[in-house]
Amino acid sequence: MAEVSLSSQSNVAAALTRRPGWTTALRVLRYSVVRLVALFATVVVGVYLTILIANMGGYVDEIKKAQIREGISLSVSMDPANRALTPAQRNELIEGLVQVEVKRLGLDRPFLLRSFASLTDALTLNLGRANYLTSDSGSKLVRLVILERLPPTLLLFATSNLFLFFFSIFVALRLSRNYGNLADRMVIALAPTSAAPGWFYGIFLILIFSALLGWLPFGGMVDTPPPADRLQYAWSVLRHMILPVSAITLSAIFLTIYNWRTFFLIYSSEDYVDMAKAKGLPGRIVENRYILRPTLPTIITNFALLVIGLWTGAIILETVFNWPGLGRLLYQAIGLFDTPIIVGSTVIYAYLLAITVFVLDFTYALVDPRVRVGEGGAK
Amino acid sequence: MIRNAWADLRQYPSAIIGLLIVGFLVVMAIYALATLSYGEAIRLWRGGEDIWQDYPRTASPEWTNVFRSKKLPSTVLFDSRQGQGSKVVEPRGSLTEITIEFPFNFQADDFPQELAIFFYATFTQKQPHVEMTWLTPDGREIRIGEYSPRGRDSYRFEGDSRLARRLRNVPAQQALFATPGVEPLVPLKGVYTLRLDALIFEENGDLDAKFIAYGKVSGLAGTDHRRRDLMVAILWGAPIALAFGLLAALGTTVTTMFIAAFGVWFGGLVDAAIQRITEIVLILPVLPILIMVGTFYSRSIWVILGVVILLSIFGSAIKSYRAIFLQVKESPYIEAARAYGAGNLRIIGRYLTPRVIPLLIPQLVVLIPSYVFLEASLAVLGLGDPVLPTWGKVIDDAFRNGALFNGYYYWVLQPSALLIVTGLGFAMVGFALDRVFNPRLRGL
Question: B228 near B47, Cβ under 8 Å?
Fold first, then answer.
């Protein structure tokens, strides 16, 4: 932390006087591309590990073999030329064709080689067909089933995190300005409440606002039947979002505000802040330019870890609130023992985590003067 | 240092409250271990009707009656085998007549949940014949029906369609207790008697009976949909939660610390490799992987514990430990240790790692609740340990049976309250410890 504050002291002034131009944009771009490549490598390794774990019991192979068998038995039974065959002969024919296909796809190769083939399949979400679950359009392709559930998850998660981020910054700045007052001490006292995950608060929110008061719906994303009018549809979604978003927020807000307020306090005891105040700059400018700006990279790093933790909680949160997203899909898949979906969801969660890290890295590059001004600190 | 820390810690009221909570949990865990053995707890929790037949379904805890204006009835149980009620045996020629009477005082403002009689008949050829009669406080005599029990047999009032017809399709547990002529039905308070007149046709035959008027409140913790007393899970959840949380937190923080120390001390490739692995682990979706392990391999809590530790040893905490180790590595006393010829392991174990203990202890304490909640999360996803009674599994059962929707709030609230109390307790202690050990933040 000392390292960050020292270099930002010298650079922050420069960053403020120089308007960002082409060179800066290029640097941020280069930084992002390098990070993107590094992250993609990380995702590949992460997905490979996932495949290894899933395949330890041979589950991915089983999925594939079942798919091959299904396809072949279908084509054999549809073929009029095979109508004269007895069931035993037909089974023999199917068995032979399956063996050929297994050989063709290389499923009889050693595990190491095969695992790389599974890796490419997993990376492209080419995970075959779900055993039981279907997408709304009736497709059983794992990719379609998963992609269909992605937007609700993203909607819920993005809303909650954006709200959490801006609200926390606002309140943390407020508190750091007059720390030690009642509100500040309340936040410190309430910080331990973040030990419980979002779904846990969800239970209580449902209990209070749905079961006891009856103000808000128990769960789901829209009313049934969904309103035909667009405006009413949006309103209905909004009403269903209030409780899950509040649950996520409640589970993280106090600790986040507490942490960030501490960061602000550390940075506002820097000499250049005293200098700015001594110059007679108005409080708002001091806050925005001399405290908020240099603290942002630290805050974003902190936020990244928080968001990664929240993704985990989101799976159960969706289950508790019946939110038709990825988490609930995974929950349904567990109940039905739908292995392709479970593996597919794990892979897509790896992707989502990587994308989250990338977005936050990109924001980091935008706000960290060391990345914007020179190459010195960029990694 | 420990004594100083204790003196500092006492300055924080939150730390005192937290310590009290943790102490309470430990006492609860010890009490659970002392009163119910591990095997017994599992046997009870997995038991079906054979163990729990005397308990009502989804009954609230008894103490909730304190807050109710309309008191709910508790379970009334009479067992003639244990000399409860009265049993008169009268030989009558070749037959024997047995009269069993169960008088009880009913003072609740609501009807019982269910009525049932369990018969224990002894005979070789001919089943005894029982006539059941219900006597109300206002002197009415209601014929319930006749029954010929086969050995161990049960008669449930609700399942008797002839009785239902006679009671004009009002459920028996309401009709038998209702004040006549009042709508909506109100229970009549007073002494009720169930009389069983049995005829035994054989010389060595005998008949005993157990009558249960299942209440709507039961025990200190209530019961669930399988009549199990929730107290078993509430009590046994404590040692399991504490053990899981503590072992996972200890396992992850200590291994993380050593890995960070190794990386910094050996530097170069080792350090780079550890850093890259940390970055990979950061984007590994921990919960989905745990779910995969739970669905494909094993749901045992100890297997899950192992996987949790494996997945978190390269956790993000490595970065903060690394920052400290990098500074410490350059300290003169490390050079001194090198000069006297200390080996790598000795330096790591005796000189490097002790320096992060102040950072490690608060983190360890703060991590405990997150693992307790992780166990609960897995249970809520239906991946809880199949045999162990845990708080998370109670919440899961409650959700699967629509507890919030049906108003069984106690079912969700009790385990949730314990979870949150556990979480708050450890977090409060951890936060205070953090401020004591890392005075940089204390002034703020």
Answer: yes
Q: List, for residues A152-189, the tens digit of each pLDDT value.
A: 888 888 899 899 999 998 888 888 887 778 888 888 88
Query: Which of B373, B424, B430 comes nearest A197 by C-beta?
Result: B373
Contact A334, A342 (CB under 8 A): yes
CA distance B325 to B345: 15
Two tokens, residue A257: 């505000």
Other Cβ atoms within 10 Å of A39 Cβ, number? 19
Q: Do A50 and B296 touch (CB under 8 A)?
A: no
Residue type at position B250: L
Which tokens hold the place of B290?
Answer: 């745990």
> What gap in Å lies between CA B119 and CA B80, rounded to an integer?
10
The structure tokens listed for A124 are 């492209």
Query: How many secondary structure helices (H) and strands (E) does chain A include?
Result: 15, 0
Which pTM was predicted? 0.80
Compute, in degrees rounded to 10, the torsion defined by CA atoms A230, A231, A232, A236: 100
- Judged against a pLDDT cut of 80, whether residue B257 lies above it is answered with yes
Provide CB contacts within 8 A for B130, sequence distance 6+.
Answer: B119, B146, B147, B148, B149, B196, B197, B198, B199, B207, B209
pLDDT at B20 over 90: yes
User: Residue B233 carries which side chain, given as an amino acid letter?
Assistant: A
DSSP A280-323: T--HHHIIIIIIIHHHHHHHHHHHHHHHHHHHHHHHHHHHHTT-
CA dist B5 and B51 (Å) reads 50
**A339:B295 CB<8 A:** yes
Q: Quick one: pLDDT at residue A56?
A: 64
Q: d(Cα B332, Cα B338) in Å, to the nearest integer?
A: 10
Residue B247 has pLDDT above 90, yes or no: yes
The 10s digit of each residue's pLDDT in A214-230 is 888 877 777 777 788 88
B371, B210 in Cβ contact below 8 A?
A: no
- What single letter denotes the amino acid at residue A86? T
H helices of B267-408, in order, are: 268-283, 286-296, 301-312, 317-329, 332-339, 344-346, 357-380, 391-400, 403-406
Q: In angstroms, rounded to a whole number, what is the distance separating the alpha carbons of residues B27 and B64? A: 24
- A204 in contact with chain B, both atoms CB, cutoff 8 A: yes
CA atoms of A312 and B324, how far apart (whole Å): 28
How many angstroms separate the CA atoms of A357 and A334, rounded? 27
Q: How far from B171 is each of A363, B185, B212, CA to CA, in Å?
A: 66, 11, 16
In contact, B45 and B387? CB cutoff 8 Å: yes
- Report pLDDT for A19: 54
Residues of A in contact with B11 (CB under 8 A): none
Smallest CA–CA separation between A342 and chain B, in Å? 7
